[in-house]
């Protein structure tokens, strides 16, 4: 049986922040806009402490080192971001 690619992505989203002991990686940099937000740089490793609550679904509470705060879940991944290699035109 072949599953559509979108079903695979939905499954990954549901497991992110739960599997791998809640560890996620920053795929892009983020500069906090509010005092309760956690800023991070691409590649930072964070532990999700709380995924969703009755009010907020797009922001998760996480720890990065000794800091804690809300992080936007759409900037996170289960693995580090893979960047394309620069190809030589020679």
Task: Detail the topology: elements first, then pairings.
Elements: H1 5-15, E1 23-26, E2 45-50, E3 59-64, E4 67-72, E5 76-77
Antiparallel strand pairs: 1-2, 1-5, 2-3, 3-4
Describe the structure concisely.
With 90 residues, the protein is of the alpha+beta class. It contains one helix and five strands, in the order αβββββ. The chain has a domain at 24-77: SH3 type barrels (Roll).
Description:
The chain is an alpha+beta fold. The protein has a domain at 24-77: SH3 type barrels, CATH 2.30.30. Helix content is 12%, strand content 27%. It has a five-stranded antiparallel beta sheet with strand order 4-3-2-1-5, with no helix packed on it. The protein is elongated and about 55 Å long. Residues 5-11 have low confidence and may be disordered.
Cα-to-Cα separation, first versus last residue: 44 Å
Q: Give the rounded overall mean pLDDT.
A: 81
Order of helices and strands: HEEEEE
| Spatial sequence of strands, sheet with the most strands | 4-3-2-1-5
């Amino acid at each position: 049986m072949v599953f559509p690619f979108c079903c695979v992505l939905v499954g990954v989203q549901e497991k992110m922040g739960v599997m791998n002991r809640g560890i996620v990686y920053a795929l892009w940099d983020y500069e906090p806009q509010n005092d309760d937000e956690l800023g991070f740089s691409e590649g930072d490793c964070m532990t999700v402490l709380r995924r969703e609550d009755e009010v907020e679904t797009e922001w998760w509470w996480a720890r990065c080192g000794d800091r804690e705060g809300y992080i936007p879940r759409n900037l996170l991944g289960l693995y580090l971001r893979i960047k394309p290699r620069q190809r030589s035109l020679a």
